[in-house]
Design goal:
The chain has twelve helices and no strands. It is mostly helical. The two termini are 43 Å apart.
Amino acid sequence: MFDFYGVLASFLLIHLLCDFYLQPDSWIAAKKASTYRGWQLYAHAFLHGIGLIIPAVIIGLSWSSVACMVLIVSISHFVIDWWKVSVNDSDRFAFFALDQVLYIAVLVAIAFHMTEAVTLDAIMKHKQFPQVIMVVTGYLFILKPTSIVIGSILKKYTVTVDEDNTQSTFKGLIAGGELIGYLERTLILTFSLVGSYAAVGFVLAAKSIFRFGELNKEAGRSMTEYVLIGSLLSVVITTIVGAFISLGLDVKLK
């Protein structure tokens, strides 16, 4: 019986090579322009299927199993790619992330089938399963839910800006601030869980230099205080989440 993680790792390696390194930019443009009418869509899907022959032969699959796997991967990749290039605004990150999740889901399903000893019941009973769920829940909480919490708290604070700068400055802060918050909280939680609190300080210092320096030039004091409150709320919530996860994982806080 094959090792699930070894099989999946080899599949993911082939996927990364075929999707990002062996696919020319001309194929990407042609797929968007011609969709199913261009040969590039078929070639790219077939490339993914053929690529999996390498790990399949190494681990000793029968040729009938290899042929079946190549067919499943090629067809599924073609359907997913066709859907993506047929959708408007397919260049958005959401579509990119979704199609990658679908690709990987197919590979995970095949790896599960090849390693029948690995079952969902066995995974849920694994001694590290609760810890994994705890960490994943923590990361999910610090993203959108935390943004909603911070946004709700900041609603009672008013911001005064010059009329000329209202559209450019305030909208830019709202749109870019959410993404900055996601990245900031992800870094803080990651560094907290591994005990690298000096790196947390570096993240906060770097953000302060770039963010508040520009605010002092473009907006008034109220805008600076507004962003400062949001930043501190972000740090406090993430630090508390990280502390609770560390305690749950029985990690010694330094």
